[in-house]
Structure prediction request, 606 residues.
Amino acid sequence: MGYLDTFYSTKGALGVWTPFVVVILNAMGVALGLGLVQLVKFLVRPQYDLARLPQPPVGDWVLGHVKYLLRKDYHRVILGWAKQYGKIFKLRILNEWTVVITDPAAAAQVLATVPGRTHNYKHIDEVLGGPGKISMFGTPDEVHWRNARKTTAPAFSMANVRRYYGGVLSAAGELLTSLDAEQGALGAVDAEPLLQRLMLRATLEGLFEVPDATALPGFDTLASNILLLMAEANAQVTDPLRAFFYFTPVAPLVSKHVARCRAALKEIVMFHGKTAARILARPEPEPSNTLLWACLHRLRHPHTGRKLTAGQLHPEVGMYTTAGFDTTASTVGWCMYAASLWPEQQEAVAAELRAAGVFGRGAVVEVDEAESEALAGGCGSKRRPALKLDPKHCPGPEELAKLPRLNAFINEVMRMFPPTAISAERLTSDQPVTVMGMTFPAKTVLWCITYGIHMSDADWEEPAKFKPERWLEDSRCAFARSPGTAAPAAGGGDGPAAAIGGAAEEEAPNTAPRRFLPFGQGPKNCVGQNFGITVVRAVVALLLSRYRVALHPDMDTSPEGDKLGAGRAEGGSGCRHSAEDTARLTHVAVITKLKKLRLVLQRRDD
Ligand code: HEM
Prediction:
């Protein structure tokens, strides 16, 4: 018998199984070989000062620290380590070192000077868009990123945000109609899906000028499909072996969850593909038109300079649809959570809104029956009159930006509960890089984790306390006390993150590094922040001016089930959830969010 007959034919020692077993053994051999190559590379790679960095005990010899990150609230694990090992320490994910940085000055330096995003960003793009669908968010190609960022950043000037704001107000009418209906029928509301719907509408109808987004096939399942894949992408980022399985052809056959993800991906791809085609089908926009759809229309291929096809534009359209909706909806969700935990803070904001007449008399109106019929279509309420907002009686973006209590409250929520808690990772280039006096090898992951910076004992007084007053008392609250390297302000649009704290902060010279980075910093900061913060301010103001908000007893996570309404506990007066309770309700799915948000709403004018 020849070699082929022995090993690759059914005449071999294991009969019909022989070829299968041989193929599997060969694959294992190749995997082992590749693993050994990686191990040798890892061992011989120059370490520079990596060796000097402390690290938590390794969970597993092969996987490194992966084991500790396989939980829903891994940002808290990192914070715990930062408290123990200091403002810079290292972790190992398989054969890659990650340097975790929670020092504001070092983070400012890294985010200003190290542009490369890690493979994780590309990975998230591909789970959400399919293989090869890499947007400016996930691309390792700096030319691609610069081209798309430069072309689309003008879309987020304040002049454009004012235009998009009209769409936010009309979507907010549907939100209120749904909230009133759900509260009336069920005695509570499931707030997050309604907020996500509002934000998707605002994105599609405002940024892309799609006439009636709710009528588009696939709109109603778009949010849940995206969220399913975001959660899956996040699970793969913390568990590289899961990613390996997910992309094998057998995965959807043996796992119902993967099959569901594949079906969701198909629907998402179709939706974004149609949006991209709709944008490209429009006539060439005037040069003065810098709305997002117009910027995307004039985007050209970064290397050939040619007009994009719908397939090529798809990743950017998908990314812009995704990047803004869950971040913004979750921020509003966290604001409602905090308003419920700290009712006296809620009342202080409501009093400010009332005194300023924000969303006061005439802002929310009932629509007549015929119009109501049309508006109620998406929100399932026919018995109650539909509501809409009258823009003439609504505050504008600038007016909202000037309300100190409202903004202090939102800032404090975004400090303690940042939706991008696990942002921002950067990958060093082919050159070693020096941070905090230590040199690290080329291709090292530097993780300037937002949550660690926002909650650091070293940089904040009582960081675990919810204290909006800190923003009222100190106009430079967003900046670290300790001297450090100032990061040059960079980014797109006319809204640097420095503007979030209000006018006084904007005027302060930028000499200290930021310790408050809900929108990141450096050239790859949030390009959509002007729009995001405007929507958050508007929706929080609208909700707190209309309702007194409380958590539904379902949200009580304590084993005894008696904490809600049980008076005062840690974290400042009025707080009835401990940090542990909040952690049990928290879920990192790329975005750090509440798993559910059941609220009881009481109309303030009742
Ligand atoms: C409250 C809402 C939002 C928060 C907290 C937020 C946060 C962030 C953060 C922290 C980053 C930087 C990630 C990094 O450093 O790697 C980022 C990037 C980005 N955000 Fe936002 N964002 C919000 C809303 C929006 C909106 C409304 C849009 C657009 C519609 C948007 C579009 C983007 C894009 C395109 C990027 C990537 C920028 C680049 O690669 O140059 N975001 N966001």
